[in-house]
Design goal:
The protein is built from 15 helices and 15 strands. The protein is of the alpha/beta class. It folds into two domains: about 210 residues, 3-Layer(aba) Sandwich (Rossmann fold); about 160 residues, Hypothetical Protein Yjia, Chain: A,domain 2, CATH 3.30.1220. The strands form two sheets. An eight-stranded mixed beta sheet has the order 4-5-3-6-2-7-8-9. Strands 1, 10, 11, 12, 13, 14 and 15 form a seven-stranded antiparallel beta sheet that branches. It is globular, with a radius of gyration of 22 Å. About 40% of the residues are buried. The N terminus and C terminus are likely disordered.
Length: about 400
């Protein structure tokens, strides 16, 4: 299959972009021991680790010959340095070493953030910088959660909820302690409700394969693996499981469950009505939108722009594949974390038999219904018999936050 064409094609002969993984987690969650294991794993030779405090990692004895730019090669073949000043400078130092031959190979970068640090500015540094964005590509965010204190941290720190929601992989540390093991089932339920798409990995057994290569492309074949990346089934199973009993109208149609093409089946309600989990408390909802019809490209652009402008901070995570009306054979891939929208990517072809538009969302204080109505207002492809369809058709901008100019005082 031909390689995907992106809006920003790399210059011919340029090195392929270096994948970057961001490792985040609450203070004391167990990032240090995870990094220690990764640093010594032969599978990660040629990986550059950018960490906040060398002291914590326990590799001080290796730092006798600290290099000018602070990048040290470890016996395992990994490169290590500490963030000095700007992350941009540190990332540029790695590239300089690679380009002048001092660093032989740099197969990936792992950036550890401190404590309750927000991973979004790190993502922004990589995607918004004109040069770094050409040389590096974000692979994913790994969030470490401590089984002993994880639930309490989620209750007390909105930042911790956000770290868990934007993660591509959730690593559970300290589940081997008696107290951690006892609290694990409740924490697992909580995390699955917060972020159904992220696999849960036990820190004690985590291998590089469990944690890395979260991106759209399968590293072995270099082809897009939308199903694995989107993991929309997890969102649908999550909402079905929690809420099917609230919505009898989903089952009024004369059809058998999954084989049914009725559009209503594709739109499950998130957490508006289930008081039995923490999501009301967090204000976080995870849900998916699926549409069979192709969508006009201009409508998609307006939908995404409005979502970003009006609700950016509330949009913790959006991933999707969209079937465009002008070119239904080349799907558009969209990806956003809060206001940070990655440049959309056009794939050369659909990677599998499912050619529907599929979007998965994790939002905070932004109800599913509002996102669905916005999508419907611009793209007009959701269930034709939803109650607000007529209202939306008459006045597509009657959404909270958008008063048509004529109605403004």
């Amino acid at each position: 299959m031909p390689e995907a064409v992106t809006e920003t094609e790399r210059p011919r002969g340029a090195r392929p972009a270096i994948p970057v993984t961001i490792l985040t987690g609450f203070l004391g969650a167990g990032k240090t021991s995870l990094i220690n294991r990764l640093v010594h794993d032969p599978a990660l030779a040629g990986t550059g680790f950018i960490i906040n405090e060398f002291g914590e990692i326990g590799i001080d004895h290796l730092l006798v010959e600290a290099a000018d730019d602070g990048i040290v090669e470890l016996s395992s073949g990994c490169l290590c340095c500490t963030v000095r000043g700007e992350l941009v400078t540190t990332l540029e130092n790695f590239l300089r070493g690679l380009d002048n031959g001092r660093i032989e190979t740099l197969s990936r970068i792992v950036i550890e953030t401190t404590g309750l640090a927000d991973p979004v500015p790190v993502l922004a540094t990589l995607t918004a910088h004109p040069y770094l964005s050409l040389r590096y590509a974000v692979d994913g965010v790994i969030t470490v959660v401590d089984a002993v204190n994880g639930e309490r941290t989620l209750d007390e720190h909105p930042e911790a909820v956000k770290q868990a929601a934007v993660a591509d992989r959730l690593v559970i540390a300290k589940a081997d302690l008696a107290e951690g093991a006892a609290r694990l089932p409740a924490l697992t339920r909580r995390l699955k409700a917060l972020n159904p798409g992220a696999p849960l990995v036990d820190a004690a057994a985590a291998t590089p394969a469990d944690l890395l290569d979260c991106g759209l492309f399968d590293p072995a074949t270099k082809t897009a693996d939308v199903r694995r990346w989107l993991n929309a089934e997890a969102f649908e199973a999550h909402t079905h499981h929690d809420h099917h009993h609230h919505h009898g109208h989903h089952h009024d149609h004369d059809c058998a469950g999954e084989a049914c093409d009725h559009p209503d089946h594709h739109h499950h309600h998130g957490h508006e009505d289930g008081g039995h989990d923490h999501s009301r408390h967090d204000g976080v909802r995870a849900f998916s939108l699926v549409a069979d019809q192709a969508v006009p490209a201009g409508a998609v652009e307006m939908f995404l722009e409005l979502l970003r402008a009006a609700h950016g901070p509330k949009l913790l995570r959006l991933k999707g594949v969209i079937r465009l009306a002008d070119d239904p054979d080349r799907p558009l891939v969209v990806h956003a974390v809060q206001e940070l929208f990655h440049p959309p990517l056009r794939l050369a072809a659909w990677p599998d038999a499912d050619h529907r538009t599929r979007l998965v969302f994790i939002t905070r204080d932004l109800p599913e219904d509002e996102v669905r109505r916005l999508f419907d207002a611009f793209c007009g492809v959701l269930a034709p018999d939803t109650p607000d369809r007529a209202a939306m058709t008459d006045s597509p901008l009657s959404l909270s936050g958008f008063t048509p100019p004529s109605r403004r005082a």
